[in-house]
C-alpha cells in the first residue's frame, strides 16, 4: 500500500483523472474504532510543534522567501490554533457545531538538531529536479543526503517540510501517515507554488491560500480523506462526525451535495476541494489527530514555541503585496491583535482576531469587498492603529 497522499497539481487533471488522485487506502490495525467520544472534544493541553522547511531550488523563482514561509505559518496556525475564524460562516449550519480547534500551534525551529541557532528554513541548491518524486533503493531521494536530498532533522521532535518544484510529479503534496513514519523517512513534501499565500502561491488558484499544508498536516497526524479513498460508500475515514462519502468532491461545490444518503461534508479540510472552499476540522477529526499523535508522535507536540510575544503593535508592519495585505512582525516575534475593516461609510465589513501570529495575510478574496478605499483598524488591549487600504480592480 502506498502511504502517499496528495492534491492534484492541476484542476483539469483532477476532473479527468479522479481515480489517480491518491493511493487506495487500506486500513491497518492502527486505527481505533468509532466511539461516541467523537462528539465531545476531549480537553487537552495545547501542543506546540516546530517545523523545518527544506527548500530545494534550481531557479530564483523556486528559492522561496522567508516571508512566504511566514505566510504559510500564519495559515497553519489560523486553522490549527484558532477557535474562531472569519470563514466560519462558509460552513453550512448543519456542520457548524462540529467544527473544532485542533489546539496545535506551529512555529519555525529556532535550533537545529545539534543546537545551533536556526530560522527553521534552509535553502538547498540543486541542479536536478528529478529528485522531487524519485525513489532509489526503496528510499525517497529527497529525504536522503546520499541520494541527492537532505537527511531529516530528528522527526521525533521536528516536522520536516520538503519544498520543491513538483511539476514533474503526479501530485502536488504528499504526507507520511504516522504509522508509516520511520527515523529516516517522515514529513511532508509540497510543491513550491502551494506554500503560503504570497510569492509563488499568489494567483496559483485553486491552491493559493496555503491550505495544501493544512490538508497534508491532517494526514501527517493520521486523518484520511472522507471517502476513505473507496468508491460506492465502501470506505470510511474512521471518524464518526464526518458523513460517509461514496466519492471525493473537487472544485467548489454548492451545498448540499448528497452521497451515501447523507449530506456530504465536502468543505472539510480533508476533502479535495479548492483552497477557497475548505473550512473545518471536526471534533472527531481533532480527537483522532490528538490520539494518533499520542500513539505515534508522542514527542512532536512537546516543543516550546519560544518566540517572544510582542505587545507593541508599532513593531508590526503592514504592507501590500498586489491584492493581499500582510501584517508582519519586524522581529519575527508573535503578536496578537484584532483586525477590523471598515468601508468609507464607516460600516464594519470584516473582522478577525489573531492570536500569536508571526504574519497575517489578508487577501482581497477573503474580504469579499469591492474595489475602493477601506480602513484597517489593528488593535490590542493597549493600542489602536489605523491603516488605509486601497483595493484596486
Ligand atoms: Zn489528501
Describe the protein in words:
The strands form 5 sheets. Strands 1, 2, 3, 6, 7 and 8 form a 6-stranded mixed β-sheet that branches. Strands 11, 14, 15, 17 and 18 form a 5-stranded mixed β-sheet that branches. A hairpin with a 4-residue loop joins strand 14 (334-343) and strand 15. The protein has helices at residues 11-16, 66-80, 93-96, 211-220, 283-296, 364-367, and strands at 47-57, 104-108, 121-125, 135-136, 139-140, 159-164, 173-175, 188-191, 258-259, 262-263, 309-310, 316-321, 324-329, 334-343, 348-357, 359-363, 372-379, 384-391. The radius of gyration is 20 Å and the shape is globular. The protein contains 6 helices and 18 strands. It has 2 domains: 11-296, Collagenase (Catalytic Domain) (3-Layer(aba) Sandwich); 309-391, Immunoglobulin-like (Sandwich). Helices cover 13% and strands 25% of the residues. With 393 residues, the chain is an alpha/beta fold. The termini are far apart.
Structural class: alpha/beta
Largest sheet: 6 strands, mixed
The name of the CATH superfamily of the largest domain reads: Collagenase (Catalytic Domain)
Number of DSSP helical runs: 6
Proportion of beta-strand residues: 15-25%
Tell me the name of the CATH class of the largest domain.
Answer: Alpha Beta
Run of helices and strands = HEHHEEEEEEEHEEHEEEEEEHEE
Q: Which molecules are bound besides the chains?
A: zinc ion
Number of strands: 18
CATH architecture tag of the largest domain: 3-Layer(aba) Sandwich
Number of domains: 2
End-to-end CA span: 48 Å
Low-pLDDT sequence parts: 1-38
Mean pLDDT: 84
Shape: globular
What's the CATH topology label of the largest domain? Collagenase (Catalytic Domain)
Oligomerization status of the protein chains: single chain
Determine Rg (CA atoms, Å): 20 Å
Q: How much helical structure, as a percent, in the residues?
A: 10-25%
Amino acid at each position: 500500500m502506498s502511504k502517499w497522499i496528495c492534491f492534484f497539481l492541476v484542476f483539469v487533471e483532477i476532473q479527468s483523472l479522479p481515480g489517480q488522485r491518491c493511493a487506495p487506502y487500506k486500513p491497518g490495525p492502527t486505527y481505533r474504532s468509532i466511539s461516541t467520544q467523537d462528539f465531545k472534544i476531549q480537553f487537552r493541553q495545547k501542543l506546540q510543534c516546530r517545523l523545518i522547511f527544506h527548500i530545494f531550488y534550481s531557479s530564483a523563482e523556486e528559492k522561496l522567501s522567508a516571508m512566504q514561509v511566514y505566510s504559510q505559518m500564519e495559515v497553519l496556525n489560523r486553522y490549527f490554533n484558532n477557535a474562531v475564524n472569519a470563514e466560519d460562516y462558509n460552513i453550512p449550519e448543519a456542520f457548524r457545531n462540529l467544527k473544532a480547534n485542533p489546539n496545535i500551534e506551529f512555529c519555525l525551529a529556532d535550533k537545529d538538531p545539534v543546537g545551533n541557532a536556526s530560522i527553521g528554513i534552509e535553502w538547498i541548491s540543486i541542479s536536478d529536479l528529478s529528485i522531487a518524486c524519485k525513489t532509489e533503493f526503496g528510499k525517497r531521494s529527497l529525504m536522503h543526503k546520499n541520494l541527492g536530498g537532505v537527511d531529516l532533522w530528528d522527526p521525533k521532535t521536528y516536522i520536516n517540510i520538503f519544498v520543491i518544484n513538483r511539476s514533474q510529479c503526479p501530485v502536488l503534496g504528499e504526507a507520511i501517515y504516522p504509522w508509516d513514519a520511520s527515523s529516516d523517512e517522515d514529513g511532508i513534501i509540497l510543491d513550491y507554488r502551494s506554500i503560503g499565500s504570497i510569492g509563488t502561491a499568489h494567483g496559483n488558484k485553486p491552491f493559493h491560500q496555503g491550505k495544501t499544508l493544512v490538508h497534508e498536516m491532517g494526514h501527517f497526524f493520521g486523518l484520511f480523506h472522507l471517502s476513505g479513498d473507496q468508491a460506492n460508500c465502501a470506505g470510511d475515514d474512521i471518524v464518526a462526525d464526518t458523513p460517509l462519502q461514496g466519492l471525493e468532491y473537487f472544485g467548489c461545490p454548492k451545498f448540499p451535495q448528497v452521497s451515501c444518503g447523507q449530506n456530504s461534508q465536502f468543505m472539510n479540510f480533508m476533502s479535495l476541494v479548492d483552497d477557497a472552499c475548505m473550512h473545518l476540522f471536526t471534533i472527531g477529526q481533532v480527537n483522532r489527530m490528538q490520539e494518533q499523535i499520542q500513539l505515534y508522535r508522542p514527542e512532536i507536540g512537546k516543543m516550546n514555541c519560544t518566540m517572544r510575544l510582542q505587545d507593541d503593535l508599532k513593531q508590526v508592519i503592514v504592507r501590500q503585496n498586489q491584492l493581499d495585505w500582510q501584517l508582519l512582525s519586524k522581529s519575527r516575534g508573535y503578536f496578537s491583535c484584532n483586525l477590523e475593516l471598515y468601508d468609507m461609510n464607516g460600516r464594519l465589513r470584516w473582522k478577525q482576531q489573531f492570536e500569536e501570529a508571526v504574519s497575517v495575510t489578508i487577501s482581497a478574496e477573503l474580504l469579499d469587498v469591492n474595489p475602493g478605499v477601506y480602513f484597517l483598524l489593528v488593535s490590542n488591549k493597549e493600542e489602536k492603529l489605523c491603516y488605509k487600504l486601497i483595493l484596486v480592480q
